[in-house]
Amino acid sequence: GMKKLLLFAMAIIFAMQLSAQTNNVVVGDSTSATTSSYVPMYMLYENSFTEALYPASSLSPGLIMSISYYVSSTSYSNGTFKIYMKEVDNTSISSFIVGSDFQEVYSGPAAWVVGSNTFTFTTPFTYTGIGNLLVAVIRDGNDYGTYPYFRHVEVGSSVYEYDDYDEYNINTPTYGSLRASVPVVAF
């Protein structure tokens, strides 16, 4: 009855406040010396699938409109990639988290330059701040070559895999290698 109605009204007000506030956070240092060629994507193979878990303590609630990754060395552009987001209860990641409830936020060319690389989302992601943020990146390439090194921060954790034969989708990772870091990002 009344209690349910009140909770619903409060949820709507909270959602309205949230959508008015754009998330503007940098996780890590954009000049970090810690780097990885594997996460968010690996270009020595044609396809890659990565997931990076960002703890709520490093973020703030709000609407995420874009993501920026930081590249420290040569870049290589090939294929396309998709970015997915999901809020999760998991506090660490030891293998891929799968499911159909990811929100695809970006799909486009896998082009990288040294420095900041910003990708504006087709659909903004509403991050409540209650859970941790999981960012999945799938690259479908048709070639491979030199690969960029992405600046990382030793917070959270990430998992990755790659192959030359099968394109990944959000439900089909098979194994995963772990890293005790995540890419430095700006939201």
Defining key terms:
187 residues, mainly beta, six-stranded antiparallel beta sheet, four-stranded antiparallel beta sheet, 1 helix, 13 strands, globular
Description:
There is one protein chain. By secondary structure, this protein is mainly β. 10% of the residues lie in helices and 42% in strands. It contains 1 helix and 13 strands, in the order αβββββββββββββ. It has one helix at residues 2-20; strands at 26-27, 35-36, 47-54, 62-71, 80-88, 103-109, 115-127, 132-140, 150-153, 157-163, 177-179, 182-183, 185-186. The strands form 3 sheets. A 6-stranded antiparallel beta sheet has the order 6-5-8-3-10-11, with no helix packed on it. Strands 1-13-4-7 form a 4-stranded antiparallel beta sheet. A 3-stranded antiparallel beta sheet has the order 2-9-12, with no helix packed on it. The chain is globular.
